[in-house]
Structure formats: C-alpha cells, structure tokens
Amino acid sequence: MEIQEKRELRRKRNQRKRINRIKTGILSFFVIWMVFSMVMTTVLTYKVVSLQRQINIITGKETVTVENQYVAAEDEGDTYLTAYETAEDNLADPKDTLKVYLTFDDGPSENTDAILDTLDDYGIKATFFVTGKEDEHSKEMYKRIVDEGHTIGMHSYSHKYSDIYSSVDAFASDLDRIQNLIYDVTGVDCLYYRFPGGSSNQVSNVEMARYIEYLTKNGITYFDWNVSSGDATSQAYSPDELVENVMADVVKYKTSVVLMHDADAKDATVAALPKLIEALQGVGAVILPISEDTMLIQHVTLSGSSPEQ
Predict the structure, then answer these.
(1) Separation between Cα atoms, residue 37 and residue 251, nearest integer Å
(2) Under CATH, what is the fold of the domain 65-302?
C-alpha cells in the first residue's frame, strides 16, 4: 500500500512538472510574440514616418540637408533641394517666367539621333547625362551633342550601382573613366554630374555626402531633378501621359529640371518630346541647357554649402 501511494505521489509530481512546463512554454510564447509585435510596430511606424517625409519633400514641404557626419537622405530620388532658401521659394507666381531644363539620362542610345533631331527642329538646347559607351555610334552621339550646343554631363561610366557606390575609390575611378572618355571624344572637360538614382538614392554602401564632397573638391557640380516625366518607371506611360506628368509639375516652379531618359526602350519619350516642347512654349517657359548659371536642383546637399545662383 505504501509503494502504491509513493507511485501516486510521483505521478502527480510529474504531472505538475509537465503542467508547469506547458505554462512556461505558453508564457514564453506570449512574451516573444509581444516583443516581436512591438519591434514590428516600431519598424512599421518608422516606415510610415519615412514615407510621409518623402511625400512632404516631394510636395515641397520639406528639404533634405546633410549635416556634420554626412547623414544620408531617406528618400529614393523624387525629392529636391534647391539653391533657394526653402523649397517654397522656388514656387512660381503667375508673373514669373518659367525656366525649364530638359535632361536626358542613360544615353547614348539608338534614340539619341531622334531626340537631337527634334531638339534641332525646335531650336531647343537640352542636357544629356551620358554613360560610358565606346562604340562608334555612341562616340558620334557624344560629338553631336556637343557640336549642336547641348550640355553634356556625366551619369557615371558603368551605371552599375554595386560598383559605383561600393567605395569612394570605386566612385572616383568610374568618374575618371567617363570624364576622360568625354574629353577624348569631344574635347570637353565635363564638370556636370548626375548620380545614378539621384543623390538621395538608398543603394549606396557609403553615405552619399562623401561622394558629394569628392565632386565638390574636384570642381564638379551635380544636378538632380524636381520634375519627372515618369519614363524611368516600369509603368508604360503613353507619350501624352508623359507630357501631362511633366506639365503638371513644371507650372509650379520657377526653375524646373526635368528628368527624362535616352535609352533604346524609350520610344514613348521620343514621341512625347515635340508635344512637350510645344506645351512648354504654350505656357511661356524658357527651355535652357544646364550651365554655370543654372539654379541648383539637388536632393541632398552638404551642410554649410551655399549653392550660388
């Protein structure tokens, strides 16, 4: 009888242990779940705040300035900082003459000739931020851009983000390569640059301010954009829609730098260009190539810098 009682006590003791383990497991699960939920809530809140900040910058309610230890911008490029004291200072009044700078990234391409032909037909000068291509057609396009009075700028040699933004040394090497190519082909010592992805891109392994500082030390001016045609996206906009995208924003600003692309797949951009030029002329805009007199449109700028007008 005593043995049976001991067995029963042992059974109950083991049962209590199993129950305690189950309780501990359930409690641990809920603790872990609560911590995970709090972390996810924090992350999502941060994302929402970041997205709202991007919206504020896009709409001109906020600008981005890099200070001290080069804090990188948190947007993806469709934002802007101008040489005006605030973004609001670039907002146009009805009496203002609109200055518009049409810029084409990623060329030369099979469409470069057509773009240049259209610009020539209308007597318009634009800006081409080119990449490094050493075939004969591309070299002819570099020459034609310069010979016809357009501004040629650098958009990196390789346009490979993983290479260009891996380090300042890699960036400098790529910059030297495209700058030397343009000089060798055209005789132009190119001093204008557009960062692949814009100065506010989020793919760089290094704070963008270090690249900005490098350009500044070498006398090179970088330009972003404050108006986008939308031809960089995967969405297939029609020529009319591209024109509408540009005109919706151009009329808002005293100075507009318009982002477009010169690439083999950008036939819609080529088709939209005559309509865009006519629409801009219709609102009295002055279409100009980027020069040393162009108001700076930059997504990110170094603290303490004073872009000159």
Answers:
(1) 45
(2) TIM Barrel (3.20.20)
The four Cα atoms 130, 133, 136, 140 give a dihedral, to 10 degrees, of: 10
Tokens matching residue 298: 């930059």
Alpha carbons 224 and 296: distance in angstroms, whole number: 8
pTM, full prediction? 0.74
Structure tokens that stand for 163 in this block: 């290479």
* Coil, strand or helix at 81: strand
Q: Give which of 175, 192, 276 is closest to 229, Cα–Cα.
A: 276
The contacts found for 277-281 with CB under 8 angstroms, 24 or more apart, are 277/118, 277/122, 277/124, 279/243, 279/246, 279/247, 280/98, 280/100, 280/247, 280/250
For the chain, the structural domain boundaries read 65-302
Q: What tens digit of pLDDT does each residue of 99-111 get? A: 999 999 999 999 9
Range list of H helices, 87-238:
112-122, 136-147, 161-164, 168-186, 208-217
The per-residue pLDDT for range 221-269, each reduced to its tens digit, is 999 999 999 999 877 899 999 999 999 999 999 999 999 999 999 999 9
Q: Strand, helix or coil at 241? A: helix
Burial 256-283 (b: 16+ CB within 10 A, else e): bbbbbbbbeebebbbbbbebbbebbeee
- In whole angstroms, give the CA distance from residue 34 to residue 39: 9
Q: Determine the Cα–Cα distance for residues 144 and 151; give it in Å rounded to an integer.
A: 11
Give bridge partners of residue 301 from the DSSP assignment: 65
170/74 Cα distance (integer angstroms): 23
* Amino acid 67: pLDDT: 37
Here the contacts of 212-216 (C-beta below 8 Å, separation 24 or greater) are 212/66, 212/300, 212/301, 212/302, 213/70, 213/302, 214/168, 214/171, 214/172, 214/175, 215/175, 216/302, 216/305
